[in-house]
Amino acid sequence: MSLRSALILALVLLAVPVAGTKDKKKVTLPDYILKAQTVLIVINPDAGVSPQNPNANWVARQDVERAIMDWGRLTLAMEPLTADLVISVRRGTGKTVSPTISAPDSRPVILDPSDQGIRIGAQHGTPPPLTNGPTINTPHPSAEIGSSDDMFEVYRGRVEYPLDNSATWRYIAKDSLKPPNVPAVAEFRKLIEEAEKQQQAQKKP
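Above: the chain's sequence. Below: its structure in token form.
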């Protein structure tokens, strides 16, 4: 991650509230989240490949996809322009600065079993970019700077460069992307359900 990206991440972390399990205040979510039907799960573009655990972020994305499918509320999309929401995930390394290998992210084939059946898809050609930042074409040594814990971020979809906008909701916690329950998905689910309950309560005379 470049120094500029690190500074931007630090500012965003300060600007967007991090979810807390003890927050009992009124839940306010935009309509595009409550009405969302499709979602694209991606690896955070700033997440590098750890030499000690090179498949960590790939596995985390698959685990989140399975948890979303098991939830049954959202359908997985193949690209950001057809997704109502874009969720970015990154596995924590336990360190704020970790040596990594930066590499391009591609999704040639999807074959994921879940309680909802098996989803099969294919990405044809180069997937649309998620950010207007520099494109990584070849792997190279780098360093990942950021939270030491797992990160789950929700962005608005159906826009160009969705990850260049501010995250609508973020959950950062140790092992929050870990199966089988994937706590980040569970917290996102509870957030939506609570927001809907509060909406219904406000409609009552």
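The first helix runs from residue 3 to 15.
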